[in-house]
Amino acid sequence: MATFNFTGQTKFYSGKVRDVYTIDDKWLVMIASNRISAFDVILPKPIPFKGQVLNQIAAYMLKATADICPNWLVNTPAPNCAIGKKCVPFKVEMVIRGNLTGHAWRTYSSGTRILCGVTMPEGMKENDFFPEPIITPSTKAEVGHDEDISREDIIKKGIASEADYAVMEKYTRALFARGKELAAKQGLILVDTKYEFGKIGNEVYLMDEIHTPDSSRYFYAEGYEERQSAGERQKQLSKEFVREWLIENNFMGKQGQTVPEMTDEWITTISNRYIELYEKVIGEKFVPELLTDTETFNRITDALQEITA
């Protein structure tokens, strides 16, 4: 994917998955690439249409939750691009979990019952519902791994004031409840997800993507209870299957470990899983849209001229 240079551009940042352009220190152009990361490592080969899937699910979900809290999104001029308001980000991710899965289960199965200052009940099985969703924040590391952090430490370290944290917590719970409602309509369970927030002036805004396969985990609702009762694995739509494949091939992002070979067949499988999640979550057929770099640049430029006029 090309690196662009827009009129009024004041900053460029290339993250694990997105390229972010700052315009006039007021707007962000966020391009979702086809790069894929796991264990904080960018895997060596891109996944076709992944950027479009992420961008379009996020745009759909931001519009479907705009009544809950203000968000950064203004326009989506290209299939893999979003333009929105630049916020001052809180350096924390608000992770919320409805089920004992993934990192929470790995913590629980090691015998630990406290995660990010939250006590998890005894006697739970993998993928069980928590009595009520728990919030387990993590730091937003610019380099290296994100780390678990408690509400108390976020406030103590000045990452967010007590008042701002209370707003983020309220929004997180309301957004998750809406996400679960939207998922249920499509026969899915929103298991866990993360939200990122920032401020414009004194107002807290929802930023980045929401309810996408990179930020969320979904189970199929049909057969969930039967699988739990039988001690079987849940059928899920998320990026977790990529992590599981890496773990099976002795890769967890640790020093000295090598990313296993990604065959063309495996890349197609990953791409199809992303498209499947789009169609399940949105309830519409995925329409692949391939633009040249020039077409993408022109669409973004036209949209920026409208926004900044």
Question: What does it look like?
Answer:
The protein is of the alpha+beta class and 309 residues long. The protein has a domain of 150 residues: 2-Layer Sandwich (D-amino Acid Aminotransferase, Chain A, domain 1), CATH 3.30.470.20. Strands 8, 9, 12, 13, 14, 15, 16 and 17 form an 8-stranded antiparallel beta sheet that branches. It has a 5-stranded antiparallel beta sheet with strand order 1-2-3-7-6, with helices on both faces. A two-stranded antiparallel ribbon has the order 4-5. A hairpin with a 2-residue loop joins strand 10 and strand 11.
Major pleated sheet: 8 strands, antiparallel
Query: What does the average pLDDT come to?
Result: 94
Spatial shape: globular
First-residue to last-residue Cα separation = 28 Å
Might you state the CATH topology name of the domain at 89-238?
D-amino Acid Aminotransferase, Chain A, domain 1
> Low-confidence parts lasting 5 or more residues at pLDDT below 50?
none
Radius of gyration: 19 Å
Tell me what the CATH architecture of the domain at 89-238 is: 2-Layer Sandwich
The CATH class of the domain at 89-238 is Alpha Beta
Strand fraction equals 25-35%
